[in-house]
Design brief:
26 helices; four-stranded mixed beta sheet; 709 residues; two-stranded antiparallel ribbon; mainly alpha; 3 domains
Length: 709
């Protein structure tokens, strides 16, 4: 009988029990078993490396640009200037909505005409690429990553970070990525002198534009916005708790907050020596806003090439919307920060079939869930992206493969989300409380039928870019568009051209770009219990990433329509549009927003200066108080300005007599129109000196009572 035909009788086949007995017979057998697994893993790695070496390195193909007419694109120019005029008429205070609508309809018709005549086409989408992947896994590290993840999950049960659970978590993440990371051959690069020169020049141009955006993000960061409000007091207290050794995973104060901003602010305070201050909060979030900009550039490249990335970088970097939400000092810019890389790696992964991109997308997806609660909509967008891809996939193999990629993104994000997942399971009521107060009647009864509120919110949310970005003065200029005139006009043209191109070519990336914007608006739109809070620039911040890319796509298409023979005209017009956009965004942030914010904010900095002066003169602040008053200053914030972040200076009227037991000197501040407090204090301190402090803010004077004997 030949060896090939020989079969072991079923009764003689080794069973799982036999394998278990042989492995656990003694320590030598166990270690031999582990060694065999390790050898098998190493052989798989070597086979995988060999397969990649055999694979031919290929330079990435350039997409075929659409055919464009060689004559002067007068239709495109006319459509653009009509759209610019229409958007300019929507600027407050003298809006002309009817004329604007008519001009926009005319611009849309001429834009479609320009598209049909091959004048104005969007840039071609990057070509698809098949990355070699033999689906191999480093089994031993991957297996141990699961073990360490389970141990870390158990370790996070105390709702606090500690050295043990952090090490276990880091080991789980490191082994997980090592176990699944794909080693790829380096792409062949054109190393000719001409290519290197072009790369250097392009890099210098990108860097120059980035420096301009740095100016917009950091200029006058110490003064704009000028004053903190109650949310900042809560953040400072959370950061102070960390300095006292309270390393929370989730901070339940003020309806609950994720952890990243608290630890990041402490790091900023230490590195820049700015202390637990309002400036530390603002500098920290401004830096977060800056970190977002490179990924906007990369995502723009993924949708249309390097020039689209550059245009998106500039428009997003100088934009009033992303600039303001990054300056406030709250968690707002964390939403776009993690949305941009999550989508960049996801979309590039679906285009190139690169496993590593899905790992990175999952990493940023999980990390974003530690940032700002509106980011919780992004997992839904990720699922929607895979659904859109699967609908457009041409083969069953691609559809099945996309399920594996989706699983990879989900599992990776769960590994990164692990601490909050543990907290969520232990305290679902606290973790979801903030969202539930907006989505349901937990805090306030819904003001009408759910479907009516939702449709109304959706309508107003979709109009925020070109009409009204809401009425919340702390992070916007109320009742004006979220976009400047140039970006707003380009955005609507971009939406139109994307819709037309998708209707003709059915590329899933166009549909995803269109669908992503309303999905990323949902954290604001779903404010059903408080519809007056919609739209809100903070809860829609993730959508800003895609909105500015749409505008950049439209601008790139317009520049290309002018052709190579009119390069000077094309870039002169681009420079003019950029200058107009920069001027308006500068005015919006550093004039209009600054002025309007000061009208609404209370002058806690001036009260903090009084506390600081008292301390400098008398060496203590135990005898300093502030009398609370409805809708006035948060009595914790003056202490923050004075470098006392953990004290509430409130003195309630029923405690006035307690101050008599405190030896002089004493200082009590109260609102200028609080006559009841004034009468009570005059009875207690007839020899006290009452002085009206004249504020630099109109209508924000307050009274200072000094008792020195």
């Amino acid at each position: 009988m030949s060896k090939d035909n020989f079969q072991i009788p079923p009764e003689q086949e080794p069973t799982v029990l036999d394998l278990y007995k042989s492995v656990t017979k003694d320590w030598r057998s166990f270690f031999n078993f582990i060694q065999s697994l390790w050898d098998a893993s190493r052989r798989a790695e070597l086979d995988h490396a060999l397969a990649l070496e055999v694979a031919q390195d290929q330079t990435e193909q350039l997409p075929d640009e659409p055919i464009r007419a060689d004559y002067f694109p007068w239709r495109s120019v006319l459509a653009l200037f009509l759209a610019l005029g229409a958007q300019a008429l929507l600027e407050p205070p003298n809006r002309q909505a009817n004329i604007s609508l008519a001009l926009y309809i005319l611009a849309a018709g001429i834009c479609i005409w320009a598209y049909v005549k091959n004048e104005w086409h969007l840039p071609a989408l990057p070509v698809f690429k098949q990355t070699p992947d033999d689906l191999s896994t480093r089994l031993i590290p991957f297996s141990f990553s699961i073990v360490f993840a389970l141990l870390a999950f158990w370790g996070f049960g105390g709702d606090k970070f500690n050295s043990t659970n952090l090490v276990l978590w880091a080991l789980a993440l490191g082994l997980f990525f090592y176990g699944l990371w794909l080693k790829l051959p380096r792409a062949v690069q054109d190393s000719s002198p001409e290519t290197r020169r072009k790369k250097v020049l392009w890099g210098a141009l990108v860097l120059s534009v980035f420096v301009i955006t740095l100016f917009f993000r950091l200029y006058r960061i110490n003064a704009v916005p000028a004053e903190p409000f109650s949310d900042h007091a809560e953040k400072i207290l959370d950061v102070y708790d960390i300095t006292q050794g309270d390393y929370k995973i989730f901070f339940p104060r003020n309806t609950g907050r994720e952890a990243i901003q608290m630890y990041w602010t402490l790091l900023v305070a230490i590195v820049f020596r700015t202390g637990l201050s309002f400036f530390s909060l603002k500098l920290g979030t401004a830096l977060i806003g800056i970190f977002t900009i490179p990924y906007v550039y990369l995502l723009g490249r993924e949708f249309g090439g390097a020039r689209v990335g550059l245009f998106a970088l500039f428009l997003f970097g100088i934009g009033y919307w992303p600039n303001v939400i990054a300056r406030i000092g709250l968690r707002f810019p964390l939403y776009p920060l993690f949305t941009a890389p999550t989508l960049f790696y996801l979309i590039r992964g679906l285009r190139t079939h690169n496993r590593n991109d899905f790992l990175l997308s999952g990493f940023f997806l999980g990390l974003g869930l530690h940032g700002y609660s509106p980011f919780r909509i992004v997992p839904i967008l990720v699922v929607a992206a895979f659904a859109i891809y699967m609908i457009h996939a041409r083969t069953k193999e691609n559809r099945l493969q996309s399920l594996w990629w989706l699983m990879l993104v989900v599992i990776t994000s769960v590994f990164v989300f692990l601490p909050l997942l543990r907290y969520w399971m232990a305290h679902p009521d606290i973790f979801g409380y903030r969202a539930m107060t907006r989505l349901t009647s937990t805090e306030s009864a819904l003001p009408g039928p759910v479907w009516q509120i939702f449709l109304s919110n959706l309508y107003r949310g979709l109009l925020m870019f070109n009409w009204d970005n809401g009425s919340i003065w702390v992070h916007s200029v109320p009742s004006r568009p979220a976009l400047d005139v140039v970006t707003g006009a380009l955005f609507l043209i971009g939406i139109l051209l994307l819709t037309v191109r998708y209707a003709r070519h059915r590329d899933w990336r166009d549909l995803l770009l269109l669908v992503s914007i309303p999905i990323l608006l949902m954290p604001s739109i779903l404010s059903l219990a408080f519809p007056s809070e919609n739209p809100a620039l903070n809860r829609t911040g993730g959508a800003a990433v895609m909105v500015f890319i749409v505008s950049a796509l439209a601008l790139d298409g317009f520049v290309s329509s002018l052709g190579r023979r009119r390069v000077f005209v094309a870039y002169s017009l681009t420079g003019l549009l950029f200058a107009v956009s920069a001027f308006q965004n500068y005015d919006l942030v550093f004039n209009k927003f600054d002025t309007n914010f000061k009208l609404g904010a209370w002058n806690t900095s001036e009260m903090g200066a009084q506390i600081g002066a008292f301390r400098d003169k008398y060496g203590q602040t135990d005898s300093v108080w502030i009398v609370p008053f409805p809708n006035w200053v948060d009595t914790r914030l003056p202490g923050v300005w004075a470098g006392i972040p953990n004290r509430d200076f409130a003195l309630w009227p029923d405690k006035f007599t307690d101050t008599l037991r405190v030896p002089a000197p004493k200082m009590i501040m109260y609102r200028v129109d609080d006559l009841q407090t004034e009468n009570a204090l005059k009875q207690l301190y007839p020899n006290g000196v009452f002085t009206r402090y004249t504020s630099n803010y109109v209508g924000k004077d307050f009274i200072v009572l000094m008792v020195e004997k």
